[in-house]
Amino acid sequence: MYRKTVAELASALATKAVSSTELTQLYLDRIDSHQGLNAFITVDRDNALASAKAADARLAKGKGDVLTGVPMAHKDIFCTDGVLTTCGSRMLSEFVAPYSATVVEKLNDAGMIMLGKTNMDEFAMGSSNETSFFGAAKNPWDTSLVPGGSSGGSAAAVAARLAPMATGTDTGGSIRQPAALCGITGLKPSYGRVSRFGMIAFASSLDQAGPMTQTAEDAALVLNAMAGFDTRDSTSAEEAVPDFGGRLEHDIKGLRIGLPTEFFGEGLSTDVEKAVQAALEEYKKLGAELVEISLPNSSLAIPCYYVLAPAEASSNLSRYDGVRYGYRAGEYTDLVEMYERTRAEGFGAEVKRRIMIGTYALSAGYYDAYYLKAQQLRRLIAEDFKSAFEKCDVIMGPTAPSTAFALGDKSEDPVAMYLNDIYTISVNLAGLPGMSIPAGFGDGGRPIGLQLIGQYFDEARLLQVAHRYQQVTDWHRQLPGEVA
Amino acid sequence: MSISVDEVKKIAHLARLRLDEQEAQGYADSLSRILGLIEQMNAVDTTGVSPMAHPLDMHLRLREDAPTETDQRQKFQKAAPATEAGLYLVPRVIE
């Protein structure tokens, strides 16, 4: 049963082949027996079982919706009323949120059962899960490897089937990269598609929440419940929300797939390139046409991002001052010392590093050279995509330059770590939707992700294109050995 | 471009982060390397390009100036490190 997708579980619940209570207990037991993965920060056993009971009552009366009774997990960046919400940080290690994020409310209203909160890089700043105050989550395919980040706990949980789906957030690749490294499906919707209300802010002009699932079909089902305009988020998009699964069964004959030359050059591992090329061959068989395109400024996406994201973070994280909520240092003599010690002790090394980059970039005398310059480059990067989409319908390439690396391998070298997101960051800068789907295995049996990039608010097309591939391949149905 | 230990200390103070000598040295090294990465931006001439602050061309919405929140002070203050009589406590700032 635990191998089933969200869609399969939903139909098993609808036909009463299983109850929500049974399913919830099954996944809670799996979480217990896989604690070594460190995928969860909090397991909310009692609430989960109580919600499951209520879901069963609704199902018994025939009043269930599509997702009623299906268990899931939230990344610990989403505020959950009455439940610990840590954002992977010592700063919030005892913070019980006084309200729930819109995403949490919506999935709750859809009848989903929250099993718990998943591990993540501290304040979503990391690509390996190693910056978490609670220790890194492990990759279920090989526990000596990182699961990717920042939504590493969510990716590990779904890959090990400790939950049939989990939420993630993606500021520079934090849904797509861990999805690729753990062999699951991850969707970052267009900026503004999913409400950011109650989602702890990292870089507000880039942050976006999305589903992490086994299949594109599941991602469509869950996005239907997550997406939509929200007055409580001032940058929420007033766009119509279609049925994201509405086009899944349409064929893709004549689809033009753009391949950016910049995504297939130096720095890409041979095993990843081979798997991506094989996936593209599969798409040709499905009737798609491959078109060469160029994103000439994409090599500058990382430098641009490492000005803009830290600048926004330094401002967003100024709220953690030890006064209204969160950690406060034990010893201080005056107010400034209280702030300084609270923040020194409450934040980890990578978060402090990014706050300092941002503070520097925004400080007097450097603003034009760094912040303004980066915003101008952001425009050029977004315009590259605009020109590219005149020649193609979707863009494809690798999600990450390599498969999962060993825990500890890059944790001492921030620049090496930042290069993991070389193919994903430009998508956030432009605000486009992007996806990673399983596309085979590389050296040592490590999962590989294929990245799909779509037009603004065209998630339905991305999901269709991903689904067609998943109809003719079974990479997404394979499980790590020790999990089965 | 490299950044000195003194500059790191200045930035850390602006960001209200206390660092010891050894940490300041470590950050001087890693921030210098990151600035080296960032300076690749200079390879492109951006003269005349209008800065992009946000991915969507959107305007801030207006709403009726009517109260929408209810008083939840007690609930919110439960998460505070120190409160008294409904107020947040901080070290004395005015003698």
Summarize this entry quickly.
Chain A is α/β, with parallel strands linked by helices and 484 residues long.
Structural account:
The complex is a heterodimer of chains A (484) and B (95). Chain A is an alpha/beta fold. Chain A has one domain (6-255, 391-483): Amidase signature (AS) enzymes (Alpha-Beta Complex), CATH 3.90.1300. Chain A contains 15 helices and eleven strands. Chain A has helices at residues 6-14, 20-33, 45-60, 102-109, 152-159, 176-182, 216-226, 270-285, 301-316, 335-346, 349-362, 367-388, 414-418, 425-430, 459-472, and strands at 40-43, 71-75, 113-118, 166-170, 185-188, 208-213, 256-260, 289-293, 394-398, 434-441, 447-453. Chain A has an eight-stranded mixed beta sheet, with helices on both faces. Chain A is globular. Chain A starts with 5 loop residues before the first helix and ends in a 12-residue tail after the last helix. By secondary structure, chain B is mainly alpha-helical. In chain B, helix 1 crosses helix 2. Chain B starts with a helix and ends in a 7-residue tail after the last strand. The mean pLDDT of chain B is 93. The chains are: A alpha/beta (484), B mainly alpha (95). At the A-B interface, helix 9, helix 10, helix 11, helix 12 and helix 13 of A face helix 1 and helix 2 of B.
CATH architecture label of the domain at 5-43 in chain B: Orthogonal Bundle
CATH superfamily of chain A: Amidase signature (AS) domain
Helix count, DSSP H or I runs of 4 or more residues of chain B: 3
Number of strands of chain A: 11
Tell me the number of structural domains of chain A. Answer: 1
Q: How many helices of chain A in DSSP terms?
A: 15
Strand content of chain B: under 5%
Q: Stretches of chain A where pLDDT falls below 50 for ≥5 residues? A: none
Tell me the fraction of residues in β-strands of chain A, as a range. Answer: 5-15%
